[in-house]
Design brief:
Number of helices of chain A: 3
Structural class of chain B: alpha/beta
Largest sheet of chain B: 11 strands, mixed
Number of strands of chain B: 13
Strand content of chain A: 35-45%
CATH architecture of the largest domain in chain B: Alpha-Beta Barrel
Order of helices and strands of chain B: HEHHEHHEHEEHEEHHEHHHHEHEEEHE
CATH topology of the largest domain in chain B: Anaerobic Ribonucleotide-triphosphate Reductase Large Chain
Number of domains of chain B: 2
Largest interface: A-B, 25 and 20 residues
Helix content of chain A: 25-40%
Number of strands of chain A: 4
Strand content of chain B: 15-25%
Structural class of chain A: alpha+beta
Oligomer: heterodimer
Number of helices of chain B: 15
Mean pLDDT of chain B: 94
Distance between the termini of chain B: 50 Å
Shape of chain B: globular
CATH class of the largest domain in chain B: Alpha Beta
Low-confidence stretches of chain A: none
Mean pLDDT of chain A: 92
Distance between the termini of chain A: 21 Å
Radius of gyration of chain B: 21 Å
Chain lengths: 90, 451
C-alpha cells in the first residue's frame, strides 16, 4: 500500500489546508499533489498522498482524519487510490 | 486521476448506495463426511471456523481502506445432503445447528448450503435433508437452505416439486410467530449455479476448489441516478448509460474480490453482476424501471424494460471482471425493494406479471408473501411454472415464497432488515392438486440434446 487520495469537502473556513497538512506531516505522510476549489461557498480539496513512510496504521490515519473533519465541520476521507483507478481506467 | 472522477466515485458510494453486497467464502466440506455423526459435526465446525476465521476482519479492513461498504460477509458450504450421507442419520437438524454455531463464531450473518441437488431424483440422504428443512430453519438463525429440483439437461423432478410445496408450508407453520420467516431462508431452484454468492441460494458446488471467494456487487441506486440524466433519450442512449454504469460498479466488485482473495489466501472465484435491491430508499430495481418511463412497475412494458436493464448490466459488467458467474442478473424480490412493495400495494404488480418478468432476468419469484391458507399443491404448482421457465429458457429460476400463517391478502408481513416487508399477494383460487399429484419427472426439453 503506497498511495491514497484524501478528499476534504465542506463549508469553507480559515485553516483547512493548514490543519489537514499539519496532521499529515505529523504522520509522516507526503503530499504529492493538491487541488482545491471553492464552489458556492463549498470547499473541495483533493490531496494525492504517499503513504510509504507513514508512522501510523491506515486505520489510525483514517480515524484521525475523520475526527479532524468532525471538529472542523468537514467531511474528510482517505481512500487507497486503486478504487478510483479501477473504476475509471480500463 | 481527475477531480470529477474522484467526486463521482465518492457520490456513488455516499448518495447512491453503491456497495459490495456480499463477500462470500465457499468452503468444501466433502472431507468432513464421517460414519459417526458426532465426528462429522466436529469436523464441519472446525473446518468452517478455521477457514473463515479472518473473513469478517479482512472484509472490514477493505471497507476502511477503500471507503466502500461491504454489507455482508457470508459462508457457503458443500450441500449437506452429500456431507451428511455417510452418517446414516434420519434427521440432519443437528448439522444445521452446527452450521449455525460456526456462522455465529465467524461473525457472518448467513451460511448457505443446507441443500440438496435432486433434479433427477432423490438419494436417501436427499430425502432426509428435505424432510429436515422445516425444523432446521425454525431452530437456527443464520442457516439458509436450497433445493435444486430441475435442470435443462434432466427436466423437472415433479416428486421433489410436490414435496417442496409441503416443506414450505411446514416451514411457515413452524415459524408462524415471525410471519413464516423461515421460508425467507429457503429457495427452490432450476439450473442452480454452483458459485452463487447471494443468499438464501448460495452453496459451494462439488466442482469448486477447496475454498473460494465469490463477490456480489450491488448498485440499483447508482444505475437510477445515471439514467435520470438521460430522461427522454432513446433506447440506445439508455442502454449505453446502463452499460457504462454497470462497468464501474463491477470494477469495484472485481477490486474487492481480488483484494479479499489475496489477503485471505483463498482463490478468487467469480464476481456476480446482479443488481440487488434493498428496502432502503434509493436502492430499488423497480424505481429504475419507473425511471425508464413506466408509471408503476407492473405496467405493460415492464418486461421489456427489465429485459433491457438485465442485458445492459451484463454487457457492461462482463468486461469489468475476469470471471463472471453466480446469478448475474437483476433481482426482483418483492419484500426487499421499496418500489416493488409500492407497486404490489397499489395493485400494479401481480404474481402473474412477476412470473413474466422472471423470463428475462434472474432469479425468479423472490420474497413473495402469499396467504397463509394457500394449499401446498398450489405452492408446488407455482414452483412448477417457474421451474418450467428456467428449464425451457436454459436459465436459472427460483422460488422463494412465504405462505404467512394467518395472513390474508391486504395485510403486510414485516421481516425487518435487508429482508424488508411483504404485502400479501393473491394467488389463483383454482385448484392444481390433480396435476401435482401425478408425480414422476417432466422430461428434459428437446434443446437439452446438444451432444
Amino acid at each position: 500500500m503506497k498511495r491514497a487520495i484524501v478528499t476534504v469537502i465542506g463549508k469553507d473556513r480559515v485553516g483547512i489546508i493548514y490543519n489537514v497538512s499539519k496532521y499529515l506531516s505529523e504522520a509522516n505522510i507526503n503530499i504529492m499533489d493538491i487541488s482545491q476549489t471553492i464552489q458556492q461557498d463549498f470547499f473541495i480539496m483533493m490531496m494525492f498522498v504517499d503513504l510509504a513512510a507513514m508512522t501510523e496504521s491506515f486505520n489510525e490515519v483514517s480515524e484521525k482524519l475523520k475526527n479532524l473533519g468532525d471538529e472542523m465541520g468537514l467531511q474528510i476521507k482517505i481512500q487507497r487510490e486503486e478504487i478510483f483507478n479501477s473504476m475509471h481506467r480500463v | 486521476m481527475n477531480n470529477l472522477e474522484i467526486i463521482e466515485t465518492i457520490k456513488m458510494i455516499q448518495d447512491q448506495h453503491l456497495d459490495i453486497r456480499t463477500v462470500t467464502m465457499g468452503i468444501s466440506l466433502l472431507d468432513c463426511a464421517d460414519g459417526d455423526k458426532k465426528k462429522a459435526l466436529t469436523k464441519i465446525y472446525d473446518k468452517i471456523t478455521r477457514s473463515a476465521e479472518n473473513l469478517v476482519k479482512v472484509g472490514e479492513d477493505i471497507e476502511k481502506e477503500y471507503c466502500i461498504p461491504i454489507i455482508n460477509k457470508r459462508i457457503s458450504v458443500t450441500p449437506i445432503s452429500l456431507v451428511a450421507a455417510a452418517s446414516g442419520e434420519n434427521s440432519y437438524v443437528d448439522f444445521a445447528k452446527t452450521m449455525d454455531k460456526a456462522a455465529i463464531e465467524c461473525g457472518v450473518n448467513f451460511i448457505g448450503g443446507f441443500s440438496a441437488l435432486v433434479h433427477k431424483g432423490c438419494t436417501q440422504s436427499d430425502k432426509v435433508l428435505i424432510s429436515s428443512i422445516p425444523e432446521a430453519l425454525a431452530c437456527t438463525e443464520r442457516v439458509c437452505s436450497s433445493v435444486n429440483v430441475a435442470t435443462t439437461k434432466s427436466g423437472i423432478n415433479m416428486n421433489a416439486v410436490r414435496d417442496m410445496g409441503e416443506v414450505i408450508k411446514k416451514t411457515a407453520g413452524l415459524t408462524a410467530d415471525s410471519g413464516g420467516f423461515g421460508c425467507s431462508k429457503l429457495v427452490v431452484f432450476a439450473n442452480v449455479p454452483e458459485d452463487n454468492p447471494f443468499m438464501a441460494g448460495a452453496f459451494h458446488g462439488v466442482g469448486e476448489p477447496e475454498r473460494v471467494i465469490n463477490v456480489g456487487v450491488s448498485g440499483p441506486g447508482t444505475v437510477k441516478s445515471a439514467i435520470e440524466k438521460v430522461r427522454g433519450a432513446d433506447f440506445e442512449t439508455l442502454a449505453e448509460t446502463i452499460k457504462k454504469t454497470a462497468f464501474k460498479i463491477t470494477r469495484m466488485g472485481q477490486l474487492v474480490a481480488k483484494e479479499a482473495s489475496a489477503r485471505l489466501n483463498v482463490p478468487f472465484g467469480i464476481v456476480d453482476l446482479s443488481l440487488a435491491p434493498t428496502p432502503a430508499i434509493g436502492d430499488s430495481v423497480a424505481h429504475i424501471l419507473e425511471e425508464m418511463g413506466l408509471e408503476k412497475t407492473g405496467a405493460h412494458g415492464t418486461t421489456a424494460a427489465l429485459a433491457l436493464l438485465n442485458d445492459a448490466v451484463k454487457k457492461g459488467g462482463i468486461m469489468a471482471s475476469s470471471y463472471v458467474g453466480g446469478l448475474s442478473g437483476a433481482f426482483i424480490p418483492v419484500s426487499e425493494d421499496a418500489g416493488m412493495i409500492d407497486a404490489v400495494s397499489c395493485g400494479a404488480l401481480s404474481i402473474e406479471k412477476l412470473e413474466a418478468m422472471t423470463c428475462v432476468c434472474s432469479v425468479g419469484l423472490d420474497m413473495i408473501v402469499v396467504p397463509g391458507d394457500t394449499d401446498a399443491s398450489t405452492i408446488s404448482a407455482i414452483i412448477a411454472d417457474e421451474m418450467a421457465i428456467g428449464v425451457i429458457n436454459t436459465k436459472t429460476t427460483a422460488v422463494r415464497v412465504i405462505p404467512a400463517p394467518g395472513k390474508q391478502v391486504g395485510e403486510v408481513v414485516e421481516f425487518g432488515g435487508l429482508l424488508g416487508s411483504g404485502p400479501v399477494m393473491p394467488v389463483s383460487k383454482y385448484d392444481s392438486s390433480l396435476f401435482i399429484k401425478r408425480g414422476g419427472r417432466i422430461p428434459a426439453p428437446i434443446h437439452s440434446l446438444k451432444n
